[in-house]
Amino acid sequence: MKFKGLLFDKDGTLLEFHNLWLNVSHGVSQVVKDYSNQHQGHQNVTITALLSAIGIEGDVVLNHGLLASNPVEDIAQAWFDMLAPDVSIAAFTQVTKAAFNQQVKHHCEWIQALPGVTEKLRAFKQQGIYLGIATADTKDATLYSLAKAGLSELFDYIGYSDGDIEPKPAPALLNAFCQQCGIEPHEVIMFGDTVSDMEFGHRAGAKKVGVLTGTALRDELAPVADLVISSVAHFDLQAFNALD
Fold it and tell me: Which SUPFAM superfamilies match (predicted)?
């Protein structure tokens, strides 16, 4: 089988994850905590507790945590339930989303493509392969970070989770990629650094390649991926075509 489309998670798969999102999450949690305090929220909830609730333990981002796999709406809901400020969930989510977008720009020095990824993506484009993004990040942060990393022009489809499409692991983003490029899910390979990314590819009917540049370990990805590699930069499409 000849694969016609490659769909990628963004952070931890194409872009550096840990330094950026640890810094961003600390900044956002403080903004959200301050906002909650101003609106009669529970003041005994600590920043450490807020970070733990989204899967950050010290300097480690857990593979199954909200930050690694879920859209901002889910993070906002978890924090809203803990803090219980006297505002609507819609207003709280808007503040949380704006804080994430602002903190990404504030820590833009950490936005960078992983080693060898840019060259590999360009090689795929030269082969006539359709390339897409499927991320749990917001529209603003996604477009900003891809532009900052110099990758924007390489993609035929950029899918993000901003409340207007069902997020991963539901197959909606992969189906939208296929529709835009005129291909079928079985002609797509999904690349990601989380178990959720692999479940996403499975639900949509795509092949799944796990990478070890993000939050998951090989032992976590191997049972749910068709292949696990150290990095997108090391993927051999010709060899994968021959295996299928």
Answer: HAD-like
